[in-house]
Structures are given as C-alpha cells and as structure tokens.
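User: Some background: our group keeps a shared notebook of sequences we're curious about, and every so often someone picks one and asks for a predicted structure to add to the entry. Today it's my turn. The entry only has the sequence so far, pasted here. Could you supply the structure so I can complete it?
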Amino acid sequence: MPSFVEQAEPESVFSSLADKKRVAILRALWQADEELSFSELHDAVDIEDSGQFNYHLGKLVGQFVQKSEAGYSLTEPGNQINGAIDGGSYTADGSMAPIQIEPACPTCGGQRTLEYEADRVSVECDSCDAMATFGVPPAVFADRDREEIPAVASRYLRAELSRLEHGFCPYCDGRIERHAGPASPEESLDGLGGPFPVVRYECQQCGAEPTSGLTIGLFSHPAVVAFYHDHGIDIRDRPVWEFPVFGSDAERIDNEDPFRASAIFSADGDELTITVDEQFEVVGIEPER
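Assistant: Of course. Here's the predicted structure to add to the notebook entry:
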C-alpha cells in the first residue's frame, strides 16, 4: 500500500500564493509551451529586480513549481491552481435568469426551472419537491448561448456522476465508497411518498457525502443503456432530469434487512427493473438481459 506524508501545513501552502507576483509566475509557466529557464521566466513576468524575482520563485518551487536542468515548469498542483483560476472557481461569480425546462417534470407533470446562482445549478419543479442541485464553475457556461445551458449543465452533472461512479471524490479526489439506503427525514420529499432509496457517496479522505437518487446512480449501467437503446433512445444524450428519479413509481425499497431497493426504467410501455443491495451492487435485473 502506498504511503503519503504531509510535507507542509495547509496554511503555509496557501500563504505562498498570497502575492500577485507569485501568481504571475504561475501564470507565465501555465502559458508557456515548454520549460522556461530562469532568465526566460524572469522576462515573462513584471518583476524587474532579479533578487526579488528569485525570492518569490523560491516560495513556489517544490509545491507548485519544479526545477530541472532544462528549467522551470509547473507541478500538478501548479496546473490545478491555474485551472481553477481559468475556471473561475475562486475568481468569478456567475448568475443568470431562470430557464424553463421542457418536457414537464416526469415525477408529477409540473413545470421545471433551471437556476444558476453562487456557482450552483438548481433544477426545481413548481409542483413537487423533486430537485437536483450541483456545483458548476462559471467557465462551464462561458460563451454559451442561453438555449444551450440546460444541455451543458446536464453533461457536466454526468461527468461528476462518472467521477463518483469510478470512485473519486469531486472535492478532494479521495476514494469514494458507495452505499444505498433509505432517505433520511431531511432528504425526504413532501408529496412523493416514502421512504425511498438514495445512494450515498462517502469520501474516505475529506468526509464529503454527495447523494443521488437510485435511478441517477444506475444511468450508466449497461443494462439501462441497452434497454433505452432498444427503444431508440440514447440515454447518454438525454438530460438526467428527463427521467423520473424519486417516488414510488420510479424507485422503491423492497426489503430492509437485508437491504434491497429497485429502480424502474420505462419506455414505450416496457419496464426494466434493477435491484441493488446495501453496497450498491446489482443483485437483480428483470427481465434478464
């Protein structure tokens, strides 16, 4: 098993970025196509005094910048800092007027609206409590036409779900463990019956616990993809909120001990039922495929 040692306190790491000259050095390396020598890097930033430049560069070497015989380049954390800057996660704030989403809510038939505020997308129904909310950096929507926004938001959500499915935390990249269980009272939705099942993605590193509906957690399962393909639907191109995700018609708890829960996918009068256990392992598919 690999071992990892914390080399620096978080406070000291972030304090090393608390100077615009150091950020300028990181940006210069980000924009370079190759490693830069000391003089090339010095020329690329607005720091005339070479001693002062060397001081600020020294604060970055090791954590955000690496030095070799060929010159200086970014470490992976250095790349991530630059990516976050370009993505607007720490430097920009975005909002937009609400966008009505078609078709109607598959859970209750109500009108759904997509809103974007404080770097979070919310898709809510005006007739029931079914909703989806997830973080999206401002750069995701940059230069997008308004009518593209719902499709772009859905693709971003699918990308985040894929990370969770493959076992990576969206916040810290730590190891994710998945579990299925009944929704807590805080997670229950008025008017949709219950209890209904949810999937919890528990990060073993930072402790984050994103949740999703059982249906959403199974969207990429081969049986689900094949079922909709047989009905002329490429589910991978459809926004996740086009499909029922909460309530007894789409999801149910079959047994509490041992825990079993099922998600029901429907198309053209046909149904596919997938049953999972507490570890979110598929234990039944009906009809068998």
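Suggested note for the entry: Residues 149-165 form the longest helix (17 residues). The radius of gyration is 24 Å.
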